[in-house]
Structures are given as C-alpha cells and as structure tokens.
Amino acid sequence: MLGFISRKIGVKISLLVNALILVIMLAGTYFLVTQQTKSLEAELFYQGKNKSILGAEMIGTIIEEAIDNGVISVNEAFDTDYKVFGNFDPPKYHTKYDFYLDRAILGPQDTFLLDEDLIYAVAVDRNGYVPTHNTRYQQPITGDPEVDRVQNRTKGIFNDPVGLKAAQNQEPGYRQIYYRDTGEVAWEFDSPIFVKGKHWGGFRVGLSLESVAAAKHELVKNMGIIMGAILLASLVLTFIFVNRAMDPLRRLAATAGELAEGKNLQTEISVQRKDEIGALQNALNRLRLSMMIALKRKG
Fold first, then answer.
1. Is 236 inside any structural domain?
2. Cys staple from 258: which of 72, 165, 222, 263, with CB 3.0 to 4.6 Å?
3. Does 26 share its domain with 120?
4. What is the pLDDT of residue 290?
5. How many helices (H) and strands (E) does the chain have?
6. 220 and 128 in one domain?
7. 18 inside domain
8. What whole-number distance in Å separates Cα of residue 70 and Cα of residue 99?
9. Which long-range contacts link 20-27 to residues 24+ away (Cβ below 8 Å)?
C-alpha cells in the first residue's frame, strides 16, 4: 500500500514539475515567437524598402541614359499627354516614351519578381501612369474585362489614393497597405524616381500579405514543434528521474510495511545517506529496535 502511495506521489511530482515547465515554456514560446515575428517583419520591411530604392535608381538611370543617347528628349521623358488607344476598360494609353521603356525596363523589372513574395515591381510616372508593367501583367487580351483587369494591367493609369501617393511620394521606401482591385492585399514600398534632378514618378514594390502571413505561420509552427519536442523530452526525463529518486522511498515504504506486520525485525536497516531519506532510514531503524525491545519485554 505504501509503495503504491509512493508511486502516486512520484506521478504527482512529475506532473506538477511538467505543468510548471509547460507554463514557463508557453511564456517563453510566446516571447520568442513575438520577437521572431517582429524580426521577420523588420527583415521584410528592409528588403521591400531596399528593393523599391534600387528599382527607382535603376529606372531613373535607364531614362537618363536614353536622354543622353538621344533616344528620347527630356520633354518626351516627362510627357503627360496620354493618348488613349483601343477600347479597353479601364482605358490604356500611349506616351512619347513608352515604346522605349517597353524594351528597356521590362526585363529589369521582372528580375525583382524572382522573389516569390513580391506581387509586382513597377515604375509609374507622377500621375500613376504605368508605361510598362511586369510580364505577368501583360498577358494577351481576352475581351473579358474581369480577366483582363487582372492579367493585362500595362499602360493604365492607377490614380487611386494609394496609387497617387506612390506616384507623388518623394520619401525613399515609403510603406503603405494596398488593397488591389484584383483582391490581393500587399505591403507596398514606394521610392521616388528622379530624372535629371526632376521628380519623374515612383517605383512600386508589392509584397504579398499572404506570403507574410504564411511566413509567420511557418515560424509559429516550427517554434511549436521545437517546444513540443522539448516538452515531451522533459516529460519523459522528469518521470525517469523522479521515479529513480522515489526508489529509496518505495523501499522504505516496503520496509515500514514489514515492520508494521512484525516482519524482519532482526534485519538492520542500513543508513547510507545523509539527507532526508537517510534520516528516515535512521528513524525506521530506531523504530525496529524499539519494537524488538518491546517484544523481548513481553516475552
């Protein structure tokens, strides 16, 4: 019976220890996940900002080289006399320079999309006009306005509030949230494009919030797996060590049970420890001697 009680005590101690460890680990996991999430967001912000700055510098350099080489003039580079062509909804426009940018900036803009987290990386003039969109948004016209609005967005004017802010912004790496008319939500980073010292427009980089959420989910999942493995190992090791620590108590419980039944009174209980277990061994040994003396007196 006493052995059974000692086993129950061992289980309770193990459970209490692991409950405490669980609380500590949950608090630690929450702290780590929060810190790692902040670090992840900071890293994404840093990348988005730098890419928008790099894109703006690249587009500005390409346009200036075209001017220097006589391909287009300064006035043509800043042309805002948008000419409607075709019968599209929303409308599409030509400018005096878009024919050149179609060849010059399409490839460089597309290289930004090698980062799968980016939805778009595109230059706009100061009115939100997109002379050349990414290849993925220059798919053949289908005639279906809803499909074409998603798949063919080049040469349109994006003068919604976010689009105009991006076009007119002069702060490198300006961040805003963009609810696209395609249904996507993006963190957008905008940097100003300057041509010959004059503000030409901006370079817009869109980072998918779905990708951000997926990265956070992956982080939380990995942290959960790691902490779960640590907790499982702790649970197993705690049971092992507590059970080992309880072995002397179980033996003493068995010895106390025998003494209560008057058995093995002649067998000395050796005191091998100087801790509480040793004190209990000593007390049982004195009890054994007392019982032997009492039996002799009765005899």
1. yes
2. 263
3. no
4. 75
5. 8, 6
6. no
7. yes
8. 14
9. 21/231, 21/234, 21/238, 22/231, 25/227, 25/230, 25/231
Centre a 10 Å sphere on the Cβ of residue 160 and count the other Cβ atoms it contains.
Answer: 14
Out of 157, 179, 209, a domain closes at 209
Q: Given a cut of 70, is residue 261 above it in pLDDT?
A: no
- Say whether both 198 and 294 belong to one domain: no
Question: Among candidates 206, 223, 201, 193, which has minimal Cα distance to 157?
Answer: 201
Q: Residue 165: pLDDT above 70? A: yes
The one-letter code for the residue type at 187 is W
- Our measurement of the distance from residue 115's CA atom to the centroid of its chain's CA atoms, rounded to an integer in Å, reads 17
Confidence of residue 67 (pLDDT cuts 50, 70, 90): very high
Tokens (6 digits) for 297:
């007196």
Of the pLDDT bands very low, low, confident and very high (cuts 50, 70, 90), residue 265 is: low
Burial class of residue 268 in the structure, from the number of CB atoms within 10 Å of its CB (0-12 exposed, 13-18 middle, 19+ buried): exposed
Task: Report the SS3 class of residue 248.
Answer: helix
Residue 41 within any structural domain of the chain: no
The 3 state secondary structure assigned to 136-169 is: HHECCCCCCHHHHHHHECCCCECCCHHHHHHHHC
CB of 121 within 8 A of CB of 205? Answer: yes
Query: Residue 239 has which token pair?
Result: 């049971």
Q: Percent of the chain beyond pLDDT 90?
A: 44
State the CATH number of the domain containing residue 190: 3.30.450.20
Among candidate residues 181, 209, 237, the one where a domain is terminated? 209
Label residue 127 exposed, middle or buried (CB < 10 Å: 0-12, 13-18, 19+): middle
pTM beyond 0.70: the answer is: no
Query: What is the three-class DSSP state of 213?
Result: helix
